[in-house]
């Protein structure tokens, strides 16, 4: 039975580590179970390797060499590679590595923090928009001088004394009407009566509208405006983080101008992307399934929405197992992958990984469940792969 080296790094929910005291972490996850199913079906054993820190999937260097898993496959250190691998020719990846048949489709999105609700003390400002408040302030400033001038002019023309002694008393009169407080003074001219009647009607409608809207806003929790598109993201002051150079290359080559501008805010990280999101410092660009898994895990842990998915996503890709260029394993791997996809086991492994992570189930229990399905699968496909392996050895195939 041949031993093949598989390059991988922790990337939930496809590859997860179960840390053991004083020992190496044991691997589980959707793609880990996929590799184990392939090894059982096609009769080989595997040994998992990690790329160097910060290299992850790998990128082309100025001297033409490759780092990360791509470099391990190109140099022959690894035979297979897994970690949410997109089928892409970016930077000439097909020159050093090939891919199996796709086993899933994915798209890249941005994970953001759910903004906290607005403070309840601000509810007194919510019934009206800022433009309405501005118009209200202007009306209040003008109502005082208007009432004072109209009353003084009409009183002098008729030879009466004005019921407003000063501009200050006129302002107090206007403010009392705006806050729906009774006014003890009565206008003594027809002109001032008309002005006061108009102000009374205006302030009554305004006050009733404010009170009814305020009651409605106090019964619900108001959420601030959210970031749903790349345009909204660009208008914010958030950075954007991700693993490796792959995403910044995608962003710089995008035809979307907003995405191109966001590439200037990209920060390459090596670990703990969720802390950047929960602290409100940045959004994390990664695959949809990773965000879906993390959102379910965190929101279940805190019993309230903590992180969310930005509505606009980009860069759809097919996922596959990475292989060495012109690897003789490709025909057998392709056939087994197609059968696994048709069996629906990938969805089962995803659900099991999410259940295990949320309930902190021991890895040994998950292995039993996963291997039970693997053995059922091998009844259908294992004998075929093993027969091809033996027939290939008789014809000189390596």
Brief account:
The protein has 398 residues and is of the alpha/beta class. Helix content is 48%, strand content 15%.
What's the total count of β strands? 13
Helical content band = 40-55%
Query: Structural class of the helix and strand makeup?
Result: alpha/beta
Q: What is the N-to-C succession of helices and strands?
A: EEEHEHEEEHHHHEHHEHEHEEEHHH
What is the strand content?
15-25%
CATH superfamily of the largest domain: Periplasmic binding protein-like II
Mean pLDDT: 81
Could you give a short account of the major beta sheet? 6 strands, mixed
Instruction: Tell me the domain tally.
Output: 3
The shape, in one word, is: elongated
- For this structure, what is the CATH class of the largest domain? Alpha Beta
Number of helices: 13
CATH topology of the largest domain, by name, is D-Maltodextrin-Binding Protein, domain 2
Distance between the termini: 13 Å
Provide the gyration radius in Å. 34 Å
CATH architecture of the largest domain: 3-Layer(aba) Sandwich
